[in-house]
Amino acid sequence: MDKFFGEVQEPVSPHGQYFNSSVMCSYVFGFLELAIPFDNSLAIPLLKDVFIPINPRFSSIMVKDVEGKMRWQKVEVKPEEHLKIPIFPETINSSSCELYDKYVSNYVTSILNGRTPQNKPLWEIHIINYPTTNAACTIIFKLNHALGDGYSLMSALLSCLQRADDPSLPLSFPSQRPQLNSKYAKINLFEKLCFVISSFFSSISDFGSSILKTRMIKDDKTPIRSGYEGAESQPFILSNITLSLDQIKGVKTKLGVTINDVVTGMIFYGIRLYMEEKNEKTKTSNSTAVVMLNTRNIGGYQSVKEMQKPESKGLWGNKISFLQIPIPKMCQSKISNPLEFVWNTRELIKRKRRSFSVYLIALLLDLEMKLRGSEVVAKIIYNTTGNSSVLMSNIVGPVEKMTLANHPVNGLCFTMTNGPENVNITIISYMNVLRITLKTLKGFIDEQKLKFCIEKAVKVISEAAMEISEISTKN
Ligand SMILES: *[C@@H]1O[C@H](CO)[C@@H](O)[C@H](O)[C@H]1NC(C)=O
Ligand SMILES: *[C@@H]1O[C@H](CO)[C@@H](O)[C@H](O)[C@H]1NC(C)=O
Ligand SMILES: *[C@@H]1O[C@H](CO)[C@@H](O)[C@H](O)[C@H]1NC(C)=O
Ligand SMILES: *[C@@H]1O[C@H](CO)[C@@H](O)[C@H](O)[C@H]1NC(C)=O
Ligand SMILES: *[C@@H]1O[C@H](CO)[C@@H](O)[C@H](O)[C@H]1NC(C)=O
Ligand SMILES: *[C@@H]1O[C@H](CO)[C@@H](O)[C@H](O)[C@H]1NC(C)=O
Q1: Which domains are assigned to the chain?
Q2: Which pTM was predicted?
Q3: In what order do the strands lie in the sheet with 433-441?
Q4: Is the Cβ atom of 214 under 6 angstroms away from ligand 4?
């Protein structure tokens, strides 16, 4: 019997299953912007020798075994079936980036929706060898979320790349240790006790409101939430914003908060500006952002090899939970000071992060999966995100410049697809730059205006911060 199913491998993780269920089929898209045109003849060898060996799942499909459980089954991969190289019409003025920007944007819209064939491993690579404003060539990785979460897939992607200055050295990442631990170690016992108690209470109420949100509380319909059911099957469009990490660090130091607080505060402020501009009344509407987190309790990235070692079993895969954060409202007069937005956001995140609800939600998802199966959990996640307005996730990228087979990588961004919400925001750092990618419902959200509003928020908040003379210790 064993021999018979010799090819059938490890079971598909529960999280992996809900990323391919009837309610949800989610893909992670990674974009590499190359400084020079790509030599297409390198593509197949790279796929064969570097990409496919990364993880057995890249050469497996999902099958139901005799007991009805989903398992990964190894198959023979034909790399050429997974490689897409679009041909655009020649432009008369071949240096016209704007025209190709438009072609690329339409092409990306066309591949964002849609499943990859189910009888083949669940990934595709698209090579767009045309110049855009940002790049001479854009390489797109389309990977089913069932293969792993953003973290696993990111480390997979990065293991195909080398450091530009010295390929023999590993890429490094900004240190990510949460400050909480060091602070926590310093405070005295009494404070620790208060901390534990307050975190206990805020957990209970967060946990309650998370469940409530999936069951009954719905965000208002606003310029950022259409309220249509089934929005995920409609076309989305991508736009992106590039921020200087040094500028953000400057603001962070002035305000005495974290980089995350600054960026989240800026995005929330930008979203409210957009809402206000679209419809004055909605600047005070109830709108929630769901922030996806991964629950791995480790610092920076691990190499894929390390992740797959038996002793770090379980690192590869999907380990996620989420926080629900109400987007601060524009109504309070004190919010005329944009910096209040950052501090406000910081308070909200701090309270939520400190609570155990992140882990409770992860636990609940696991439990529901065991008791009721992946379809139910998929529905919970779908209902939660669908009843919120904005979904945000972030990934930390390397500090050094990278190359892909000697092609320098100028920029890096990512996005994820197929949830019910209308605005999906993903953030990644690379070298000295933060890239914010906005994935918005085409036709419903004015992506140019939203982008403009967030850029304006960045400007307004940076300027306000620079006017502060001393470091504010406001908490
Ligand atoms: C993914 O989900 C769809 C819809 O439930 C199903 O038809 C398909 O067979 C699934 N794919 C795999 C590989 O299980
Ligand atoms: C980001 O925006 C630039 C400029 O509009 C564009 O050229 C590029 O293709 C965009 N990248 C993605 C991944 O959408
Ligand atoms: C927002 O929710 C609160 C209760 O949570 C409610 O009292 C208030 O009326 C809501 N605001 C709007 C604009 O719907
Ligand atoms: C999700 O919403 C649907 C209604 O669209 C409802 O039938 C279902 O019970 C909800 N699922 C969960 C797990 O809350
Ligand atoms: C949101 O909550 C309502 C219940 O108020 C539910 O019927 C609906 O299916 C949920 N999900 C979405 C995606 O709207
Ligand atoms: C938004 O991104 C999350 C992951 O951050 C993903 O799970 C979800 O399906 C995405 N939704 C849409 C509509 O793209």
Answers
A1: 4-163 (3.30.559.10), 182-399+420-466 (3.30.559.30)
A2: 0.78
A3: 236-244, 433-441, 423-430, 390-395, 288-294, 320-326
A4: yes
